[in-house]
Amino acid sequence: MTAVFLGIPTAPPGVGHLRGDRSFPDAARQALRDGQLRANLGHATSTIRAKRAAVVSELPDWAQLREAGRAIKAATMARLDEHLIALEEQVTARGGTVHWARDANEANTIVTRLVQATGADEVVKVKSMATQEIGLNEALEAAGITAHETDLAELIVQLGEDKPSHILVPAIHKNRAEIREIFLRTMPGVDASLTDDPRQLAMAARAHLRERFLRARVAISGANFAVAETGTLAVVESEGNGRMCLTLPDTLITVMGIEKVVPTWRDLEVYLQLLPRSSTGERMNPYTSLWAGITPGDGPQDFHLVLLDNGRTAVLADEVGREALHCIRCSACLNVCPVYERTGGHAYGSVYPGPIGAVLSPQLTGVEDNASLPFASSLCGACYDVCPVAIDIPSILVHLRAEHVEAQERTTAEAVAFRGLAKVMSNPRLWRLAQRAAGLGRFLARGKPTLPNALPPPASTWTRTRDLPTPPRETFTQAWAREHGS
Amino acid sequence: MNAREEVLGRIRTALGENRTAVPDVARDYRLTDGRDPGDPALLDVFVDRLEDYRASVLRCGPGEVAATVTRALDSGLGTGWSPGAVVVAPGLPAHWRPEGVAPDDGRPAVELAGSAASVTGVATAVAETGTLVLDGSPLSGRRALSLLPDCLVCVVEAAQVVGSVPEGLAVLDPVAPLTMISGPSATSDIELQRVEGVHGPRTLVVVLVQVLPAS
Lengths: 486, 215
What we know:
The structure holds two protein chains of two kinds.
Chain A (H helix, E strand, L loop, with lengths): L2 H4 L17 H9 L2 H23 L4 H17 L1 H14 L3 E5 L2 H15 L3 E4 L3 H5 L2 H7 L3 E4 L2 H8 L16 H11 L11 H18 L2 E4 L3 E3 L4 E6 L3 H7 L3 E7 L3 E2 L5 H12 L7 E6 L9 E7 L3 H5 L15 H5 L1 H6 L10 H12 L16 H5 L6 H14 L6 H13 L2 H11 L2 H5 L14 H4 L12 H9 L2
Parallel strand pairs in A: 1-10, 2-3, 2-4, 4-7, 5-8, 7-10
Antiparallel strand pairs in A: 5-6, 6-9
Helix pairs in contact in A: 4-13, 17-19
Chain B lengths: L2 H13 L24 H13 L3 E5 L4 H13 L8 E3 L13 E2 L5 H5 L3 E5 L2 E3 L4 E4 L16 E7 L3 E2 L2 H6 L7 E4 L4 E2 L7 E2 L6 E7 L6
Parallel strand pairs in B: 1-12, 2-3, 2-4, 4-7, 5-8, 7-12
Antiparallel strand pairs in B: 5-6, 6-9, 10-11
């Protein structure tokens, strides 16, 4: 049963960053020609893969934690409405205000209105996927409100007028020399003798943002987790920019996808072990902030929680695809993906790149709006192996491919080819004839191990990106008959 | 229909009339480390993990806390620091305080940011991850106190150190403003290489109070 059939709306077009302007293969072809990008990605992903593997192997109960992480999410989704109502009740009881947003436009309107009510014309932001997804910064800008990103990588992306390319490290596609140039070009008053030493670059960001933190009156954050039974929100970070935003301003607005709720406080004991080891490859990230509503005399005295749908309920309606909602945004699947490692995140066209993006973005927007993404994978399964909540990404990819094929109104050349192949493969006589015919391919190969990559259309759409091995001199069946008699 | 009713309605539609049973969650991962809080071997793990993430650790006996905090401040600020530049959590026991340092009086953030160092206690600590947890109580201080000064000294009593994350969370109040701290602030945003010291304190010194074996 598809979401469309049930009448549950997907994320609306024209707002936010879930849809690219090109198909994945077109965008990827360009990315693959960028040697610097490939070098940067190769370096960064291999570093993080090694760190993750080392800290995961330290825990003798990783498999049990992973299974618990999966089961808690499955249990949460099974009663998502009840947990959200409980969360709302708890946050409200502790002095917070809960808002519900059907989609990106509604969330942007709510947040803009809340900021305007404070009279502030600038806000500081903690890195948040949800606010990137809905294009909140653009909406605020249209209302004359400046949003300052405070996470180092987000700052690099914002100053460079670039787009994020990784869930955890949005500037992963830039190396230290490129970052230094962005800082020299865009940071007012930056020391001209700044080198490309990461420590110096981090210090430049500290100096740049310090005063902004101290004068900010409104902060906007996302949330990694929200505990239904207690109303506790959690933000997991490293730099301390999150703590600055969550602690110093008078008003805090948190935008959270509805799937981030977990039922009980105890559930955090699982995710606070799974997440840091899977994302930055640390035993624990430097800072985790947890708060419930407001605390008199400590931190923001005005707290708003915006619960965002924006296509999530449409994902929930798909019994196979809903597992994508279990994602805790660690980005381990990006770091192991052979496709992501070569194309980088921009090619996916969505704020959610990599394997998880290839299953999440098409479901949030409706498959036909991101139809090339489910095919942006070799189905090798490395993403499934590292996923800390065991999302079976390859199976969802296959499921979405089928959905795309079924959505085609006109018969495609591929469909005709496979229908023909099905006929041939279900008839022994036709199959033997076809094998004999395939042997003719040896003439095209002219002694090389693969066939030339320029078969005529429509076969060229297949052979352009795949090496077709030269057919063997004889088939296995022929060889068997020759050696053993038929 | 308002947004709340509509989103809840969509969820109910998505889950269908006949909901599946809620799957069981097996909690067969390690709930405890197996060692009691403050176990000497556990403290060794704790110190190892703290140092691995570039925090420094000073161990001392119960009678030497104030002197050791002074040494911690010496290491973070250099000797000759002014007591006026150090702010301590309001509930820090008097006999833990170096002479002349003042408790936090709730001063504005801008003033707090001008202080060189702060000293706090903790609510609990997790050995396996080298994590300190502050809970906004008078002993831990408000959140800004452990955030704005560039050097943070945390006093941890041996009995507060538990083995695993589940043990740590079990003793915390879920509705208190909690901050979990594992090492000084850090970033991996440039080429995924970890660099210590960004917006939070760049120096973290832990004073671990335990009954030391007679030497």
